[in-house]
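Q: I'm writing up a methods section and want to include an example of the input and output format. Could you take the sequence below and give the corresponding predicted structure tokens, formatted cleanly so I can copy it straight into the document?
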Amino acid sequence: MNEEIVSIEHPTSLAQIRRRFKPDADVLVYNGFPVSTEKAESTIVVDGSTVVLIRRGQIPLMHELEALMMARHTPGVHERMKNAVVGIAGAGGLGSHVAMALARVGIGTLVIADFDVVEPSNLNRQVFTVDQIGEPKVEALKDNTLKANPFVTVQPHCVRLTAGNIAGIFTDVNILVEALDVPREKVMLVNVFSKHFPRIPVVMASGVAGYAPSNWIKTARVGEFLYVVGDMKTAAEEGQGLMAPRVGVAAHHQANQVIRLILGQTEQDGAGDGDTE
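A: Here is the clean output for your methods example:
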């Protein structure tokens, strides 16, 4: 019941479970199917069933939400996610999707830096909505991630990243995601961060534009603590813009690599790992 094991007497109806555990629930889901409150009276719950009880508009308590959101995780994974601090440099097409993916898997803290505001042209590939146009991206992204998981900690920094502030902003992160647009800023970020934190992994991106095959996008380990996602060649240029599907594929490669690193997965671990994955 709500992803926790409970014992009940038999026979017990779904309505009786509702009255016992969550009497204000107005959405009842039995073995994956919604059941009306009227039909719940005659629905007998059998052994091994799953029941989800929801009150519309009500945010579950933290332990309830964690149990529901993390029910599909392998045992032991959630605590490692919850204790992780991930930095995201850039809150655009890559960074906004990385942040949402990591919030949904239960990353404990996200440190997000970007100086930009939401523009109409961003809506073709970023997680923002029309009503957020004009807002600082980091603040809008914080709002969106907290709507998905209100118990993640988001630290927004509405600043342009420079050689002088990178170390201070990302001083506590376990992993840094590079999600910037300008190549020289990407290089500057990686060089400065690696100088201050030489043993903290960085997951960057290169070559995610256009609509070339999704399978061209790979995750490659190019240094002991440096990973690059993309096809390494399709840069945004005239006639080849940035589009939601391919940018999203790359962003989720980055998010997945973050998860792998948190869980201690490197190319030496497991069958099939190598220079690319």
